[in-house]
Specification:
The protein is α/β, with parallel strands linked by helices. It has eight helices and five strands, in the order H-H-H-E-E-E-H-E-H-E-H-H-H. Strands 3-2-1-4-5 form a five-stranded mixed β-sheet, with helices on both faces. The chain starts with 10 loop residues before the first helix and ends in a 9-residue tail after the last helix. 31% of the residues are buried. Keywords: DNA recombination, DNA-binding, Transposition. It comes from Commensalibacter nepenthis. This is IS6 family transposase.
């Protein structure tokens, strides 16, 4: 990771700020104050720039660390407020909570659902699901049938709409979104899309990405460092 556009902040400091923002319920001004207490003078707008630049990069590089899901998939959408209007975040996990994929869309319809299914199970699919659980929203049955017709899903893939199947992914929505209210709402779709990639990436890391053994905050930070080519420890 090179120095950020000629600024005097090093890579460790930048990634520390990005990790703090995405992991904890801190505003940009909170992080600005934390750095100031350490004798480091930065600005909340600079911190915002770092998050928008490096959060998507973290998510992109983490994709290669994801493990295949178990085959039984849960798909649901949750609401995200952007510029005062509700938008829709499609998300998929397996029955064990393993992350599969996500997609922020402006609308909740068949076209949006199809885009998500293609992203999750064709472009970057891990294994084809054998079972898909959803709520009873109208776009899902038609979308799943279309995906079968286009051979993105297998014909034997079972679609279920039992509410009990959705409890796990609904809880996962809460884990993702609990830091978002501090923002009130995102100011643009572009900002929301980039920042949400970072929130999802940190949640993937917290879940362990299939790593065995001890998985403390220190191990998680070491992984983030290695992704950006940083070898020194970042204080948490």
């Amino acid at each position: 990771m090179r120095q950020d556009q000629g600024r005097h902040f090093n890579g460790l400091m930048i990634i520390q700020a990005v990790n703090w923002y995405l992991r904890y319920c801190l505003s940009y001004r909170d992080i600005e104050e934390l750095f100031l207490k350490r004798g480091i003078n930065t600005d909340h707008s600079t911190l915002n720039h770092w998050v928008l630049r490096y959060a998507p990069l973290l998510e992109k590089r983490l994709r290669s660390y994801r493990k295949p899901h178990c085959g039984e998939v849960r798909i649901d959408e949750t609401y995200i407020k952007v510029k005062g209007q509700w938008k829709y975040l499609y998300r998929a996990t397996d029955k064990n909570g393993t992350a599969i994929d996500f997609l922020l869309t402006a609308k909740r319809n068949i076209k949006a659902a199809q885009r998500f299914f293609i992203k999750a199970f064709k472009e970057e699919g891990l294994f084809a699901p054998t079972h898909i659980g959803t709520d009873k929203a109208l776009p899902f049955p038609k979308t799943i049938q279309t995906m079968k017709n286009e051979h993105i899903l297998a014909n034997h893939c079972v679609h279920e709409t039992r509410k009990s199947l959705q409890q796990g992914i609904e809880n996962d929505h809460f884990r993702l979104k609990r830091g978002i209210p501090r923002n009130g709402c995102f100011q643009s779709f572009h900002t929301a899309r980039k920042t949400l990639k970072g929130y999802e990436a940190i949640l993937w890391i917290k879940k362990g990405l299939g790593f065995k053994g001890k998985w403390t905050i220190n191990e998680q930070i070491k992984l983030i460092q290695s992704i950006f080519g940083l070898n020194n420890n970042i204080p948490v």
